[in-house]
Amino acid sequence: MSVDELPIGRRVAQWRIRRRMTQQMLADRLGKSKSWVDKIERGVRTLDRFSVIQDLAEVLRVDPVVLLGRTTPPSTAIGTGGVDRVRAALARYDFAPYDPDRRPATPVAELSKRVGHAWLTYQHAHYFRLLRMLPGLLADAQRVHAAQPECAAGLLVQVYRVTSSVLVKLGEADLAWLAADRAVTAAGGDRLLAAIAAIPLAQALRALGRNQLAMAAALAAAPQITPIPYDEGTLGELSVLGTLLLQAALAAAGCGDRRTAHELTDRAGEIANLVGEGHDHQWTCFGPTTVELARVGAAVDLGDSEDAIIRHGHAVRRDRWRRLPAGHRAAYLIDIARAYLQVGDLAAAGRALVEADRTAPAETRSRPAARTVIAAVVRGRPTAAGVAHLATTLGVA
């Protein structure tokens, strides 16, 4: 029997085991009983509500179409080999001391250019191209750090950070957590680098559904670089601080903590006004517009959909909106599509998804979370032509 012919309960059981979860762990994350999970896996209880399948898929970190037994979209398969090579690169340990007689380390200036190129590739949502770059970049950054730790620590932290960030996008949260942890280790005792490393750590923990831990990690790192008063900090420090506060705010929203989410975004907003628009210090893109987009994302997670939609209308009229990296805009549009879904406006959700795909196709075609939203819109019917075409392309029609 092929995987696609298995009953849905068997597929749930397979993915649960693959994710190293017990039935009780899965039940706890779903807010169900262990008995409920057991009956689903044995086929005693039927999974006939798509919303429940979506919840299962989110906890198991797979696309709902995989649980439904349909062929995995080609876009997902494209990245499998790349992720495996990144996994192999992260699993490679070199305990030998640096030997200058072996292949010389890449010059720091050249490595810096390659790190910058990696970040631009990420920001423009060329995720599979970045996956091809990362194994070599990780190896070279490690070698340069071994040879010149005082010069290359920051570059190594950024390489681990961009690695973690793209892995989160592709639904590989466990591996992203490993890369983020490596960034924290590489930062050593440098307070700014430690704060930078905490950004991907919080992102990975949020992707794993560990919002309390994500908020704790971000808020623990923030005081290390908090200038008093704020305007005494460098723009780089302020950008990292503001980004940490936004990560903590989104984690708070994921916990349903409305007051904390609002307080943290307000603090981030104060800092953003000092940083101003149009900067990308430490590859954060932090500024007033990104704070407004985070407010929308937090509102969606809190279920405040109408507030999110109102804020969305103001956010996309900002001059800076169109100048944000394509990947950032597309990810945001998927968030606002979720808000439209929550209020039952399938047409607006579809338009947001089509615009996201036009802005950065990899964002809609490689992220499991995006395909979940697309599938939900398609099942609402009637479906606009653009959304139907996108769903067919991804195999979720």
UniProtKB/TrEMBL annotation:
It comes from the Bacteria. One of its GO terms (molecular function) is DNA binding. Residues 12-67 form the HTH cro/C1-type domain. InterPro entries: Cro/C1-type_HTH (IPR001387), Lambda_DNA-bd_dom_sf (IPR010982). Gene3D superfamilies: lambda repressor-like DNA-binding domains (1.10.260.40). This is Helix-turn-helix domain-containing protein. It comes from Micromonospora pallida.
